[in-house]
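Follow-up to my earlier ticket, as requested here are the two runs.
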Amino acid sequence: MPDRSGRIKALLLAGGLGTRLRPLTDSIPKCLIPLAGYSLLDIWVKRLAEAGIREARINTHALAGCVRAHIEQINAENRLRLVEAHEPVLLGSAGTVTANANLADDVDEVVIIYADNFSDIDLRPLIAFHRRHPDPLTMVLFHAANPRACGIAELDKDGRIISFIEKPETPASNLANAGLYVIDAAAYREIAEMKAFDLGLDVLPRFTGRMRGWTWGGYYLDIGTHESLRLAQRDAPALFPEQFGANDHNAQRPAVFLDRDGTLIEHVSYLSDPELVRLLPGAAAALKRLRRAGFAVVLVTNQSAIGRGMLTENRLDEIHTELRRQLAACGATIDGIYYSAAVPTRDDRTVVEDPDRKPGPGMLIRAAADLKLDLAGSWMVGDLISDVLAGLNAGCRSILVESGQTPPGDAEALDGRALVLPDLNAAAKVILADQGTPQ
């Protein structure tokens, strides 16, 4: 049996493009998509630190700058040291091991984690299990509902993996690869020397007979689709009360995201004068009721006038200062304002041209990360189809209000994906009724 004295590092695989999660992943890396204000990367960092792992690497590719900034925040917390391994061209999961072969130089084991998976797994018993058996690799397994879509392992009576097949036509079991491994340093270097591309297809079958399976019976979810993301956002606070702050109202707070012109204030084409700001009837009262019920209220507004040179950011600030003044006079407030200055190139409000400009979800996602908001429990309210689609693209429910410049046909084009109501006041009543708040 190898000497397992406990020196251990980790490799987080996070360079994937997340194409099935577009348009979210056009503006935010998959590993940083927020779950009640925290990201998948935050959760894995916490689990690594709890297991006593003090150094890890993470591969990056698309939107690497976003991950790089988050790495700086993680390192500032001193829980562990996280080092970026940038890949200008994606190397594949096994290729990343080859590119980071020296990670095993001064350790006994390396933990490899696919960082786009969401689980409540505790790494400590996993590492202890690996150190008790003589084989060089331990693969975490979970019971898959659809084994044909996974890498499937078959175990002998000792828990040794005797066969492993990616997406088999006739699965030998429902024990699926969770994308999490503990590997002896020598075996890690062996994998690096293979110069292969994919761990599941090219590497793991070659370890058949000398790796063990460790089955996790808790929560496991591959965040690969919008549906799985919605499930994760729903389940995260209950799974991680200590991480998501069960006693911290803000950590789990849903939001009502609002368009500005035609939803909260009267529509003025390319509004540039604070004196023309007029709250719509009942809007301030609706905001008061929503915030009293525990919702954050966040303004998300397209402001192409800035990109067109028709409006300065300072002037926009004056407009929003006047908006806040009028709300305050009515006893109401908003929790945040986000705007996009991107200029569209086509007259189609259903096409995402820029991830921040609605119907892109970028402003909502940034607000969720900044304010620790629960997107799955949130709503988007606006008078244009682009507003509604921004909410749906962010994983929220949406309401189209007809108090602004709603073009004919927008409601029909939504095909039942959103409610259609007269104004913000009516929208607030529906949102509060859905929450169970007495009217």
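Run two:
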Amino acid sequence: MLFKFFRLTFVFLIILAAMIVANAQSITPDASTSNGKTNSNKEDLPKNIKESLAKSRIEKEKKEYEELLQRSKEALKITEELEKSFSQNNQLSVEDQKKLDRLEKLAKKIRKELGGDADEESEKKDNLYSMQSALEILQNNSIKLLDELKKATRYTVSVIAIQSSNALIKAVRFLRFSKN
């Protein structure tokens, strides 16, 4: 009798566990999303929400493009200041070194936003011989970069702008580490 009772209890527990597992599977949220809700397509959204999302995306792209132009203008201003300082003192001061650091950061950020990467080939083949030539390269490439960004739209990627930013970075590094 005791054996039948344990067997009946065991069968009851197995059925109860199966029911719990089956119920849990139907209640469990979709694991493909972080909030447990099913992923809704953009087609499911009302028209006014789609328009609002599109407008905010366009505004964000415009803002990013304007910031890119501002960085390029700032880079040109810094190169002009560096060239003026070097022509007056025939060397770069500690303040000019800080400007070079800022210029390198700007050029890297511009290059990154354009989708560019470091150009190892141009770093190997171009040799800068003097600080004056490096400053001229800074000035020319800053102007070229700004002109190219002004010509481009926020939808384009300019290879010339990426190459100009790489040349800027290379010239900055030469100026920062040269003893001329």
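The only thing I checked on run two: The radius of gyration is 31 Å. Let me know what else you need.
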